[in-house]
Amino acid sequence: MSVRVLEVIFFFYFASHIPITLFIDLQALLPGHVYPQPLKDLLQWYAQEFRDPMVLDPPHWFQSFVFCEALIQMPFFPVAAYAFLKGGCKWIRTPAIVYSTHVATTLVPILSHILFHQFPTKPHAGPQTLKERWLLVSIYIPYLLVPLLLLLTMLLSSTYNYTSTSQHKSAKSKKN
How far apart are alpha carbons 113 and 51 in whole angstroms? Predict the structure, then answer.
């Protein structure tokens, strides 16, 4: 896959994350009166359709992840969207590595919770069957896979690597 195709994928990922964070995810932190009824209804529909009680009655650990999303990730989304839309911006490498490792790390406990937690059926039903659990995992898994793809791109792509092969060889020979 070409680097430009990956950059377009990353652009859409970050650009789409802005409204998702502002209008959906932050409902777990902000008071209800901040959001208009249609957005609250959308969140209710999502939670019922995909059996995701974490968004309606978030555990404290989940709220801490949303807090990090609001404070750390949200300011990064438009910057990253710009960098990947423009393409070839080497300066995005370090922030993208920090972002991708942070997000991938937060997804591990979220996915583990979805797969192994015994969710109650009331007041907000969680996934009860294996099929329901995997459906909910399928909603969250792109937020693990895309950051991992981003991390690998930043680490392995010559487009985002500051050192050239000749510089690497000369540095190696100086050590010997």
Answer: 13
